[in-house]
Amino acid sequence: MKRRGLLLSIITLLLISPRVWAAGNDSTSHIRSYDSGSLIQSDGSLWLWGYNQSVPTRVEGKPNVIKTFSNIINEGDLVFTLQDHSAWYVPRNNISESVKFVPLEGLQNLAAVSSLNDHVLALTNEGSIFLADQLDNRNISSPFQTLSGIDEVADIVSYYEERPDYEERWIFLKKDGSVWKNTTALQGFEPISPLKDITAIAKNIALKKDGTVWTWPKEFDKNAAPSETLAVSQIQALSGIKTIKANRYSNLAIDQQGRLWFWGATVTGALDNTTYHNTNIPVLLTGVQDVKDAFFVERSLLALTTAGNVYVASLDGEKLSSHVPFTLLVQNIQSIKAGPRHVIMQKANDALWGWGVNKHAQLGIGDYEFLYNTPVPVQKPILVRLNSTPVPLSNGVITRNGQAFIPLRSVFDQLGADITYDFNSKIAKMNQSKAGDHPVSLEINFKTSQTKVNGKSVELTNPPFMVNGIGYLPLRLISETLGAKVDWIQKEDTIVITTK
Predict the structure, then answer these.
(1) Which helix (H) or strand (E) holds 414?
(2) Is residue 227's pLDDT more than 90?
(3) Over the chain, what is the mean pLDDT?
(4) 3-class DSSP state for residue 492?
(5) Which residues contact 435 (CB under 8 A, 6 or more apart)?
(6) What's the superkingdom here (predicted)?
């Protein structure tokens, strides 16, 4: 079949065909793992969303992805490793830029990545630490170099010490349960001597094997002696603890009974008038029980229970009462991955849902609404194949009102069509006029939804739309008599366009 016939068939598919289909909610999940802005399918393919990608979009040329590490430097940043143990960095700090992939030279068998100020530290499965610098644009500079003086590391965390200027502080949990810290810059290391048999660290707190929690100062008087940094003390109110969490301002602990404890800062005001109110004594939060996991998100506290319920409480106010109300947010959740301002949750049926700030499409639902106060479903990762070949998409397939929409340019580019777009008039034009073919043209006005095929107006039941400058058209089932066939392979979440 000639290109002209296929092109006209797909235009007909998009505009005229009588029956509409889309990805059903009962499609089999192929998600092997996920993070706050990415997922890995069972075939090893990586899908990203956020910034230029408003829904999960397949990454081309990077098969066999094994693991992801998110929010390394900026929210949305990603590091991932391949089956060959190589590591790659994806900076996502500029919404106007397309996705870039930077090889992290010198890194193999990556276990964790952390950044602070001018440095990025990487931990390998063998327990070695590697160091790289951050560039002026807050991206990672490669290659990584071995950081000498510290080894057999199981985990790393970082924070700023105030003395009164901010100083970069790195904490290392070794495999033998000891805890170490850097001295000057990253030139020397010393043990935090009283700490032994430690199983977890979070900022300036540590969890001991016996369930006790220990801490050391991170704020000092300007006349404080350096030795005060090692003034470790037990947090007496906490015992039988199994999990600790911390962000820059606050801390959480979950005990063996599934009770949730909080200490640190609550918040009042906004922007330049933001004030943090600190409480050093842990408060038992009685409004939620049987807690499995907990998270700080923006100015909220989320708790996931063993029953799969997610509850939310506000951190607004001068003090957090032990009786702070927790509101049921969603049910049937098996796990949560949190970004600084949003969460992605996986339900018992493996479907992903998002909640929180969506300014940069962090929730992967196909729009840039700033905030969602109720959970919304992340769009399914849908593959498009043209004659058995995957079609590279600038943005993934979007489903709305039970119907599928595909990016105009992605498919027609594969057919050799010329595509133009006028930003002022919001009119897209597609032309195919190669030698030996009859001319085929498509014109779409995204302001009025008026659509013309070969100069003739076509009535659209489902109008096209634009998301972040990407034009979308509805995908319809095409009759075999038109010369091209489109199938929805539900068990594979795949749209297949084939020609005879």
Answers:
(1) helix 408-414
(2) no
(3) 85
(4) helix
(5) none
(6) Bacteria
pLDDT tens column, 320-367 = 999 999 999 999 999 999 999 999 999 999 999 999 999 999 999 999
How are beta strands 389-390 and 383-386 bridged, if at all?
Answer: antiparallel
Non-local CB neighbours of 438 within 8 Å, separated by 6+ positions = 4
The residue type of 364 is G
Tell me how long the chain is: 500
CA distance 438 to 129: 62
Tokens coding 219: 């704020």
Q: Looking at the chain, which residues constitute the CATH 3.30.457.10 domain(s)?
A: 3-24+384-499
d(CA 293, CA 276): 24
> What distance in Å separates the CA atoms of residue 36 and residue 376, rounded to the nearest whole number?
14
The number of helix segments (H) and strand segments (E) in the chain equals 2, 45
Tell me whether residue 447 is exposed, middle or buried, using C-beta atoms within 10 angstroms of its C-beta: 0 to 12, 13 to 18, 19 or more.
exposed
Q: Does domain 31-377 have CATH number 3.40.30.10?
A: no
Domain 3-24+384-499 CATH (choose: 3.90.780.10, 3.30.200.20, 3.30.70.100, 3.30.457.10): 3.30.457.10
Q: pTM for this structure?
A: 0.89
Whether the CB-CB separation of 463 and 449 falls below 8 Å is answered with: yes
Pairing of strands 383-386, 494-499: parallel
Q: What's the farthest any 2 CA atoms get from each other in the chain?
A: 85
